[in-house]
Amino acid sequence: MKKLSLRTRVLTGVAVAVVGAGTFGAMSANASSPAATTVQAAHQPAKHLPSTVKAWSAAWSGSDPAALGKLFTANGTYTDQAIGATMTGPKQIAGWKARTDATMDNVRVTVKDAWSEGGHHITIRGVYSGHIKGAPKPFAVPSVTLLDTDGRRITSNQDFYNLADVLAQSGLPADWTPSAG
After folding, report:
1. DSSP assignment, residue 21?
2. Is 35 exposed, middle or buried (0-12, 13-18, 19+ CB in 10 A)?
3. pLDDT, tens digit (0-9, with 9 covering 90-100), for 68-127
4. Alpha carbons 53 and 15: distance in angstroms, whole number
5. Phi, psi of 52 (to 5 degrees)
6. Mapping DSSP to helix (H, G, I), strand (E, B) and coil, where does residue 47 land?
7. Are strands 154-161 and 72-80 parallel, antiparallel or unpaired?
8. Rounded to two decimals, what is the model's pTM?
9. 3-state secondary structure of 151
10. What are phi and psi of 43, to 5 degrees?
């Protein structure tokens, strides 16, 4: 299998998110892009997800922030691309999960599918959902996550989703920000 560059993984992941905006359709078997063909060939059905993906999804959907932090190396990074925030190390990453849980109810990451490049580069297509405290409605938006690992733990996590869709589905104004405290 051809190894995809980070740039190709990002572009492919963003393309998957755009194609699936709102609802996820399967990638066309006649995809003309070499990257799409490679990704499709490396696709992992949901029942055969890498253990790292299962643990990551369970940690995000669970109630123990430390469970997410424990999945990362000492200098691992977690970047939420939608809001431009990066946390480094298990303690900061667990803190990020704790802050997320403090501002949202029912936070979930539902993995639709994932593909792996030798276990060290994993791309996840899923749905990020929850209910922002005080918002009129819950949200559920398409997401793409890129994980890099050292074979055991996550060294880099990049999440991509549309923040404007989160706010619109939640019934909040586009310039809404969480209250301090």
Report:
1. S
2. middle
3. 999 999 999 999 999 999 999 999 999 999 999 999 999 999 999 999 877 799 999 999
4. 20
5. -60, -40
6. helix
7. parallel
8. 0.75
9. coil
10. -55, 140
